[in-house]
DNA sequence: CTGAAAGCGCTTACAG
DNA sequence: CTGAAAGCGCTTACAG
């Protein structure tokens, strides 16, 4: 065996076998133009034969290429720190992939203000961006935006809520229907046959109603599927200040004998507050999200169960999916529904969202 | 500004500023001998001033060093596929860090056979190993083994269960007491004041009893803490075949009016099978672990709740902790308790363990 | 105790 | 259409 026969690694070995330079091998690997079909075939055959896997470390080291992702999600509001968690996940993923030349640009909008959403979109310079991670809180406006992305062939990933019928790379978020269904399942354990139930939707934004209605639907369908005969009442509360909410609650609770309450979003803390203040502890209360406010009521026993959907993980996995696709051309599942976690006063300290 | 003043990056810039060669900089960074205190101080000062962060990609590319970790966990048995999950997590972590030169050696033992544990330990050549990830199922034997590791200064991480009083790098696994406590909390919702409860421990191995007793203790203490007055009965079943178990169950259930059953491990499926066969569906049943068997009973409604502790994540995070410590000298928390997940027939399909 | 050189497996101009 | 060379930020012998 002469020295020439020694097995090299990677592009060098491919080049040696194909009798071309490593520059040419590189061109073939990246499908760059300027290679004759003949040598292209030859090189590709060898790549296949060797089952060549590029060394990603060397690739990154040698390449000066930078990749920029835009992140478009709500900012943390005074009302709720919910969006802290997705951001945490995004930053974590960002730190992990930054050695590979990925930079993040964050555009945080006010979830209660459609205009701030539009303003943030305006600030994004699409010519500098290789991918977008977004929470499409405002449906129409989001649709308009992603159409522009599609024209420029910029891939994007939805988190937290989905918009159907678009060419998103993927979705990471809850299966809303099923989380309502689960809530009903939990509630069933705690009810007697004749107990009355109250469903409470609290939201200023009509846009978000889709969200809530889907959960309500799941909740109701459970009772229908299981042929349970409990009466289900419902109120929609379209103001989010405490006075308004407590007045609304007072009215229903006075006139009905409600044994359990299901709040379709994180505002469950307001309902808990009302019940706590009126000394009303008999009622079962189930709601959503691992926010500070909710946690304190959970621990005091005013909230029985919280349903959570791994907000941190939505951000983390969403960004990772974008990275995998843009940098490694790998695409995973389109729909990625988060686990539906049940949080109680006894396991909440162990929850890592 | 002359050409000499141009800012370089990394070791080159440090070398330039310190007026030494990059070889010397490398020696200082890795604290290798053969550098005068004087230049060492000079270089270190500059490293600090620049807040130098080594490029880990370049480091790995240049270094031929290989790191080997031994993994010592139970193999999947016919009785339960529980250990499939931790192994999955370990393999996932292994794949992620293999570009950085990490290799795994797996040593799988039979959890029902102490000798197979000892045999696997014998197969490990400690002189070739830079770290160990282990599930210390057999306490005494594990203690003996980790003492040997400590003498050789080989770091190790426990998963699934912990042994106190040793110098492990960290532990990833359940807080057993708290998971029993949570089970009681769930059960409380489903009980009436006068209902009787049955605790069932099923296990051949005395060694595992610590495990189970800790959960039982948490379970009992919940009822004590909350001053609940339900009677709690208990049986220890020391054979794991179905006939034996069903006979044992039959005896208690016949003589008592049991409303709810708490099984302290994954054998809950056997109890479910018995209840299903006898057409006994009124009783609440809570147990542990996301195994195939358990899942099928959960979906059919024979099991009400399963408590799970992210077995995949235990393996994943345990190996990652070892990697962070050995390769990057970073150590995290010593005790890492997994989330205590509540699985029902409605959220089980979304569970990612 | 210190330095100069080669090399890890790629990419990137540049030259032809 | 193709090749030869330089370089990414490190580590590793080797020489002195």
UniProtKB/TrEMBL annotation, chains A, B:
<feature type="domain" description="HTH lacI-type">
    <location>
        <begin position="9"/>
        <end position="63"/>
    </location>
</feature>
<dbReference type="InterPro" id="IPR010982">
    <property type="entry name" value="Lambda_DNA-bd_dom_sf"/>
</dbReference>
<dbReference type="Pfam" id="PF13407">
    <property type="entry name" value="Peripla_BP_4"/>
</dbReference>
<keyword id="KW-0805">Transcription regulation</keyword>
<dbReference type="GO" id="GO:0003700">
    <property type="term" value="F:DNA-binding transcription factor activity"/>
</dbReference>
<dbReference type="InterPro" id="IPR000843">
    <property type="entry name" value="HTH_LacI"/>
</dbReference>
<protein>
    <submittedName>
        <fullName>Transcriptional regulator, LacI family</fullName>
    </submittedName>
</protein>
<keyword id="KW-0804">Transcription</keyword>
<keyword id="KW-0238">DNA-binding</keyword>
<dbReference type="InterPro" id="IPR028082">
    <property type="entry name" value="Peripla_BP_I"/>
</dbReference>
<dbReference type="GO" id="GO:0000976">
    <property type="term" value="F:transcription cis-regulatory region binding"/>
</dbReference>
<dbReference type="InterPro" id="IPR025997">
    <property type="entry name" value="SBP_2_dom"/>
</dbReference>
<dbReference type="Pfam" id="PF00356">
    <property type="entry name" value="LacI"/>
</dbReference>
